[in-house]
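Colleagues,

Please find the record for the two-part complex below.
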Amino acid sequence: MLEIRNLHASVGGKEILRGIDLTVNAGEVHAVMGPNGSGKSTLAHVLAGRESYEVTAGEVTYEGKDLLKMPPEDRAREGIFLAFQYPVEIPGVSTTYFLKAGVNAIRKHRGLEELDAIDFLAMVKEKMKLVEMEQALINRPLNEGFSGGEKKRNEIFQMGVLDPKLAILDETDSGLDIDALKIVANGVNAFRSPARAMLVITHYQRLLNYIIPDYVHVIFDGRIVKSGGKALALELEEKGYDWLKPEADLAQQTVA
Amino acid sequence: MSTSQKTIETLANQEYKYGFVTDIEADSAPRGLNEDIVRLISAKKNEPGFMLEWRLKAYRHWVKMEKSEGEPKWANVKYPPIDYQDIIYYSAPKQKTDGPKSLDEVDPKLLETFEKLGISLSEQKRLSGIAVDAVFDSVSVATTFKEKLSELGIIFCAFSEAVENHPELVQKYLGSVVPYTDNFFATLNSAVFTDGSFCYIPKGVRCPMELSTYFRINQADTGQFERTLIIADEGSYVSYLEGCTAPMRDTNQLHAAVVELIALDNAQIKYSTIQNWYPGDKEGKGGIYNFVTKRGKCVGKNSKISWTQVETGAAITWKYPSCILQGENSIGEFYSVALTNNYQQADTGTKMIHLGKNTRSTIISKGISAGHGQNTYRGLVKILKGATGARNYSQCDSLLLGDKCGAHTFPYLEVNNSTSQVEHEASTSKIGEDQLFYCKQRGISAEDAVNMIVNGFCKTVLRELPMEFAVEAQKLLGLSLEGSVG
C-alpha cells in the first residue's frame, strides 16, 4: 500500500529525514520507534503533506500513486489519516460539524453522495462506542478545553468516523495514563482489518503491549537503522536506544 | 508564497458581483452644496414647509460646523479629505410619470437591476412573504405589500411618501432620536437626505412579515443620504431588514444615512443589516464611505430594540448603532460581525445609554480582519445616575487572518450608578497554519476550512439574523474572504 524510498526531508533548512526506506502492506501494523529528534514525527507530517516540511529527495508511492505530488486534502481523501500528537483547537466548530465536513469531502471525492445530518449522526453513534466517546464532548468546539486524554480519544474517534486505509498515529500514547491508553488501544485494535494498514509512531514500548505490531522499525538520526518483529520493541525497552548508535553509523557509511 | 495561499488565490476570483452599472437616464442636480440645492431637493419632493425649514436649519448648522471644526477626526480610519462641493446631492432615475402606482409602472430597467441583485419586487418575493421597499440612488422605487399591511394599519412606505401622507407622524418623531445637531454627517444628512423608508406599527400589532429595504447607489459621484424612521407604537413588533450594494467605481462615494428607531411601551423593533457596499479593489482604490448614524430610543417601559449587522463591504465603515434605554426595564442589543479585507477599514461599535431603571444591554461584536484590513471596535456603555439596577454584558472578539491586518478595541465604560453590573470580555485569535492543516488532513479544503472557522466564530451573531438573511450572510462572509488565507 505504501512504499517509501530514500526519503529525505528538511524543516527550517535542517535535514531531519536522511533516507527512509519503508514498505507497508494492507493489513499490517508497523511500529516506528526512536529517540527524541530522530525524525518520527517528521515522517508522519511528511506523509500527511504538511507544507513546512520540505522533501529534498526520494519517492513515496501510495496505492500506486505518487503521494508527494498530492496536496494534503487529496491525501486525506485518498484514505490517509494522521492522528496528531498535539491536536489543535478550533473554537466555534464542534467535532460533529468538523467531521461531517471531512466525511462529505471524502465521499464527494469518491463519487459518493454526501451524508445528511441524520445519516451522519447515526453513523457517528456507532463509532462513539469504540472509544467510549460522550455526546457532550463531540458537541463542544473541537478540542477546546479537552484534557490530553480526551484529545487523543477524539483523534481515534475521528479515525473511526473517517475510515481511512492508512492510519498514521503520531505518539498517540504520549501524555496518557494507563486507563486512557487502554481505551485508545481498544479503539485502534477494533479498527484493524486486512484492508487497512497502520503506522504506529511511539517513543515507549508500553503502547505496543496493547497494540501488537507486526513489524517494528527503529529510526535513529533520520534513518531506519533496524527492523524486526515485536520482540525488537522489548529489546529497546530493556536496553534503550544507545546500543543502536554503532548500527546507525554503519548505515550512514554504507549510504555514503 | 505557500501552496495553500496560491491555491486560494487562483480560485475563481469572485468579483464583487454587484459591481454592474445600470444604464438609465437620471435626473440630477448640479454638483455642489448650497442653500439652493437644499431647496431644490425639497421642491423635487413636494415637501411641506416644516420639512424645508428643518433642512435649512440643518444646512446652516452644517456650514458652521464645516467652517469651525470640520469633520470629526477621532475615528481610527484614514481617508483623503472629502470635497463636499464635488458631490451630486440629488439624482433620480427618470420615470415616465411622477411616481409608480404599481410595479407595472416602474421602469423595467430598474426592475431588472433589482432582479440582478436578487431583489425581486415581483411575485417571487410575494411568495416568500417579505415586503420590500427599494431605493435606487436617491429615490424609493416601489414598495410591495402596501395594501396587505395597510389593512393592519401598518404604514410602510418611502420616506418622501410619509412626509406627504403622514406629516404629523414625521414631524413628531423626526430628529427625536438623532437631532440635526447630533454630528457632522447626521447634520449633512438632515439637510440633503433624499429618501429612505418610513414605518409605523400601530398599537398592539405584530407585523406579520419581515419588512425590507434595499439600497443601491448607481450614479457616479453622487452621495447617498437616506433617512429611515421606524416607530413601533405600544405593544407592537416589527422585524426590519436592510441590504445595500453599489457598483464598482474608481472613486469613493459617500453614504451618510440616518436611521431612527422609536419603541414605545412594550414594543419591540428588530433591525438587521447586511451591508455589502463596494469595498474598493484589492489595492484599496474606490469603494463606499459608509458613515452612518443609527440610533434607537427605547422610550417606553419594557421596550426592546435589537441591532444585528453583518458589515462586509464599504471601503470605510464608520457607524455605531446605538440604544437609548429610557423606559424602565427596556432592553438594547447589538450583535455585529464586521469584516475587513484587502484595504478596508472599519471603526464600528455601539453606544448603550442606560437612563431608566432596570435596563439591560447586550453587546456581541465579532471583528474579522484579513489582508491589510483594519478593524476597530468602539463601544460605549454609559450608565447614568438614575439608572438603578442597570446590567450590561459586552463581548468583543477579534479574529485575524494573516499577519498584515489589524484589530483594535476601544471599550468605554462610564458608570455613574453603583447598583449596576457591567461585564466585559474580549479575545483575540488567529487562524493558524496548524488549524488549517488539521482541517486539510481531514479532507477539508482550505477555503472550506476558513469559512467553517469564520462561521463558527460568528455563530452567536449570525443566529440573531432572520433565517433568509443568515444564509445570505454566511455566503457573503465566504465570498468576502477569498484570497485572504495566509
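Chain A has a mean pLDDT of 88.

Comments are welcome before we finalize the supplementary table.
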